[in-house]
Amino acid sequence: MLAAALAGITGYGWHRYAPPAPWSPAERAQIRALGIASLPPLPTDPSNAVADDPKAVAFGNHLFFDTRLSANGLIACAHCHQPERHFTDGLPRAVALGVSDRNTPSIVGTAYSPWYYWDGRKDSQWAQALEPLEAPNEHGTTRERVVDLLRNDADYRHRYAGLFGALPESPADTDRVFANVGKVLAAYERRLMPGATRFDAYVAHLDRDGEPAAQTHLSSREIRGLRLFIGAAACTQCHNGPLFTNNEFHNTGLLSPPGLLPDRGRADGVRDVLADPFNCAGPFSSDPARNCPELEFARRGSELIGATRTPSLRNLGNTAPFQSRGQFATLAEVLDHYNTAPGAMIGHNEAKPLDLASWELDDLEAFLRTLAAPVDADPLLLGPPAAVQKLSRVRR
Amino acid sequence: MLHGLRQVCGGRTQAPAAPYHDVPWRNCAYNDVMKILKRRRRPGLPALLIASLPAVACAHGGVVAEDDLCVINIGYLQAHFKVYVPAASGHRDYCEDIPVRGETVFVMEYLHDGLSTAPIEFRIIRNTTGKGRFAQLADVEALPDLDALTVRYEAPAAAPDVFTLLHEFETDGDYIGIVTAGGAQPGRTHTAVFPFYVGARGFGVWPWILLALLLLQLNFGFWRRRFAKPAALLLVILLPFGTLDARAGELLAADTGRVSVEIVPSLDPLTINRLHFWDVTLRDRAGRPISAASLEIAGGMPAHDHGLATEPKAVELGDGRYRIDGLRFHMPGDWVLYLTIDDGTHRERVTIRFSL
Known about the structure:
- The complex is a heterodimer of chains A (396) and B (356).
- With 396 residues, chain A is mostly helical.
- Chain A contains 16 helices and four strands.
- Chain A has helices at residues 2-17, 25-34, 54-64, 77-80, 125-134, 143-152, 154-164, 174-189, 198-209, 211-214, 220-230, 266-275, 293-296, 331-340, 358-368, 386-391, and strands spanning 193-194, 249-250, 308-309, 375-376.
- A two-stranded antiparallel sheet of chain A has the order 1-4. Chain A has a two-stranded antiparallel ribbon with strand order 2-3.
- In chain A, helix 6 (143-152) crosses helix 8 (174-189).
- In chain B, the strands form four sheets. In chain B, strands 2, 3, 4, 5, 6 and 9 form a six-stranded antiparallel beta sheet that branches.
């Protein structure tokens, strides 16, 4: 009995405090690939002529926080995409004018994605920015009223003219002006990048100073979690690259929450994006060549039933609840789900059960929590400009 | 790291629409309109269940499949049929009777493409036929006022890919589901009728015996899984993470005897998550370039049961050279790409396996 207890304590102590085993060269390469230093420069968006224009960034900053872009004058983009919550809202499903079917995803670092929304029904940041404005349960406004706002606000009219030329008067140009509003919002959103985390510091030190020095940045438990993350837990199958996402669509067998049907996901999203007038190949793209390989080679078919976009894991400690419909309130629930990988309600669950022990799941969670850092952006972009603060009747 | 090339000559060029077609079905003799068939991984217990309970008396068939399967036949149109009560029983799916009452999700996953475009009408009525679970279409048609009995009606509408319906049952009892699918002309529609019971029901002593057996079986499964675990874990660690720097040069060639294929990817090394193209050179046995061939590209990750992330397309560059554009491999691991080459006289399928 005593011997068993002793063995148990020793075993636990060893597990808890033993120095982590050194990484193999292949593991190091995998870890390096996850570090923020591996993030390539922001890709250009030829479909958005003002994507990298500082004037558009400033204008977008105004629009992003402007509650006048809503039916009741109370809802701005920042209503759900709250800077202090890493541009999410802390709710299972978005609540604005009404309740949405899906969870508010973060905007940070999404300029790297070819697809937007959980089902990928938009193919650019600017096309995405348009839909919530007219969605009845979100901003609930109309493109005509958005154009009117630009016309009636002298500052906005001036800013618009500085980017796109004088605001056209004809109603025939409404769609084009509306699309430009999306492009201005996208120029702002592009500036919101993930900051370097403790994990990134570990990666940087790993290459420069070797493992023992790097270990000042992560605990042995977090390092064990990292080992699971790139190994037995198979997380990097989908959550790969420096943003921890492959930006693709996967069915992970989630249950539908009360009152909602199972999420049809990308099966519908791909149909929608191909039919979207604001897509890359449409008349409102700034790219005269209409070079749209993502749309051209977009995959369709029944395999996409119930598949939703892989979200980034950066800052996920700050973006609960989780999954496309906010099914899980805590990271532990998410990990339990992947550990059992139950069958999907529609389509099939691509994940296979991990059968990890509870302490392994704890290690994994500890690692995931190291991926937290403030948003890397000009601090001025993280709140409403003074002019907007004054104008908006009610702040969030 | 590439695992080398394996060639397949004259193989099947397209995966079947659904893997379930080859299975010999055994129909229920007493209900020729609606057939619900169920297959189980473990034969022992379900066989006993089937023998003992009328509730699933209809639910049997071959016992060779890899998955549980419940099929609804709407005329010749088949769909995988499942019912969930997510709030009460989570991921558990029911085939006919729903032992818990609550918000219920009906799912039909089409095994026949025709259902993706056919308008589907869905109706649930209280079962007053007096025939219980043996009610058939004729019994339903004989009912005087269908609308008065209807607890849920969904007008005909096409549901692409998969049909889902949410309904909250207010009372326990016998119900009948009536699914109609088909074209605009009345004569061309097909109907399936499935009686079912909502709510818990007593079965005397049998459930306890079955429960004991079930526990034994689960226990067995549990221990088996536990002992299997270290090996399984080891496999998971070893398999997916070879290396990310597969060399393009290693993908170089395949030869089916009739056709030789040379491949040069535009990415070197080949990496995940990047849209890129492969330049492919096709030569015949004498080394002459093959022109004007059509190339079909399919593939995916066998370990994850999924296909490619994109729909790549091939264009001819001339001189036996083709460009397969729009390839993106979105996960590390083992990939397989099937290249079907048709030069008008011959059709060849080349299988390319590689690991990212």
